[in-house]
């Protein structure tokens, strides 16, 4: 009850505590992976869309200029998630939508751990709370078939919002309503076509090699991303008869995970977000190390760091892709001015 004061205490006979679920910000993970790849020689191109691919190259379009270019390669891996079948029509996907709600953590008595609520009638399926470092908590998630064209930005539906509230509320001391919801977001799982409900389709990943040597990796889960990458690269090495040494992923830390922070001025929050780079995020101007607002612990210095070191190009990058401020429309409106000033100063 000390960790989860927002849970209903009546009829509580015991508890089980686990230590998984430590990743709280997938945007930070994606950025760290891209920067780590660049450290080892990768060229990371944003705003580029693959139009056509084969095992020997791709035709890509610059999203800023509209120009198209042909890239040649010794191997090509199609890791485009729910868009994978647009590059290899032999693949048949059955995407499912996972929706989350965003609430202020104070609505849940500021619980400092993940709490799972069982979904009635489904063994081993839960709706959970996921506290964030910015004073918000995510509540998720659904598993609904998502037919038709794949949208660039999936959105939550009213039935999904009701489902999440109805499932989490029985374990909470204070009932959440729609008025407590300050934002929503959804994502799509790239599940391979199979019989049965999407919630029953295996989350195991698959690596498929086309006759022309194009390697596609689909399915899987965030927690197994390194194994997925290893299997995909192994397949590309075999398909294209490349020379390669053994995989070193298991012993290769991401940027920011190499050692303990050296700058004691960095807050615990910055260390959680940036690891050993937390000190480098701090600005020489103390005012830029202050929170944007009482509800937004993100600092202008973090925007500066994203522009200088993380490939951010505009306001949307700062608010929606390097931080998660954009998930809450009211917070986004407050932060837009600060983000615009940072972009203007950097450009």
Salient structural properties:
single chain, 347 residues, alpha+beta, FAD/NAD(P)-binding domain, D-Amino Acid Oxidase, Chain A, domain 2, six-stranded antiparallel beta sheet, three-stranded antiparallel beta sheet
Task: Provide a brief overview of the structure.
This protein is of the alpha+beta class. 26% of the residues lie in helices and 18% in strands.
Q: How much β-strand is present in the residues? A: 15-25%
Number of strands: 12
Topology-level CATH name of the largest domain: FAD/NAD(P)-binding domain
Query: Fraction of residues in helices?
Result: 25-40%
Span between N and C termini?
A: 49 Å
- Count up the helices: 9
Question: Rg to the nearest angstrom?
Answer: 22 Å
Gross morphology is globular
Helix-strand topology string: HEEEEHEEEEEHEEEHHHHHH
Structural class: alpha+beta
Oligomeric state as shown: single chain
Please name the CATH architecture of the largest domain. 3-Layer(bba) Sandwich
Domain count, please report it.
3
Average pLDDT metric? 92
Main pleated-sheet profile: 6 strands, antiparallel
Low-confidence stretches: none
The CATH class of the largest domain is Alpha Beta
Enzyme class: oxidoreductase
Family: Belongs to the FAD-dependent glycerol-3-phosphate dehydrogenase family.
Cofactor: FAD
InterPro entries: DAO_C, DAO_C_sf, FAD-dep_OxRdtase, FAD/NAD-bd_sf, G3P_DH_FAD-dep
């Amino acid at each position: 009850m000390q960790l989860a004061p927002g849970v209903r205490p009546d009829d509580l006979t015991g508890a089980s505590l686990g230590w998984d679920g430590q990743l709280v910000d997938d945007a930070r993970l994606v950025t760290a992976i891209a920067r780590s790849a660049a450290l080892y020689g990768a060229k990371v191109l944003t705003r580029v869309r693959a139009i056509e691919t084969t095992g020997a190259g791709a035709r890509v379009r610059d999203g800023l200029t509209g120009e198209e270019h042909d890239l040649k390669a010794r191997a090509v891996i199609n890791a485009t998630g729910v868009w994978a079948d647009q590059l290899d029509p032999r693949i048949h996907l059955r995407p499912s939508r996972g929706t989350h709600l965003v609430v202020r953590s104070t609505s849940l008595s500021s619980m400092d751990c993940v709490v799972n609520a069982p979904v009635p009638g489904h063994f081993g399926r839960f709706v959970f709370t996921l506290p964030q470092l910015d004073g918000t908590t995510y509540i998720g998630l659904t598993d609904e078939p998502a037919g038709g064209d794949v949208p660039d930005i999936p959105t939550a539906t009213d039935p999904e919002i009701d489902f999440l509230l109805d499932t989490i509320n029985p374990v909470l001391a204070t009932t959440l309503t729609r008025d407590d919801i300050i934002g929503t977001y959804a994502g799509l799982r790239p599940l391979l076509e199979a019989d049965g409900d999407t919630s029953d389709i295996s989350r195991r990943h698959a690596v498929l090699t086309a006759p022309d040597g194009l390697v596609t990796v689909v399915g899987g889960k965030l927690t197994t991303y390194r194994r997925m990458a290893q299997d995909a690269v192994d397949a590309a090495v075999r398909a294209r008869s490349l020379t390669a040494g053994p995989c070193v992923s298991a012993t290769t830390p991401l940027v920011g995970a190499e050692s303990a922070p050296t700058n004691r001025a960095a807050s615990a929050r910055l260390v959680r977000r940036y690891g050993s780079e937390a000190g480098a995020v701090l600005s020489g101007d103390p005012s830029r190390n202050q929170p944007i607002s009482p509800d937004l612990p993100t600092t202008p210095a973090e925007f500066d760091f994203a522009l200088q070191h993380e490939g951010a190009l505009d306001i949307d990058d700062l608010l929606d892709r390097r931080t998660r401020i954009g998930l809450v429309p009211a917070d986004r409106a407050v932060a837009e001015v600060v983000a615009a000033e940072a972009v203007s100063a950097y450009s």
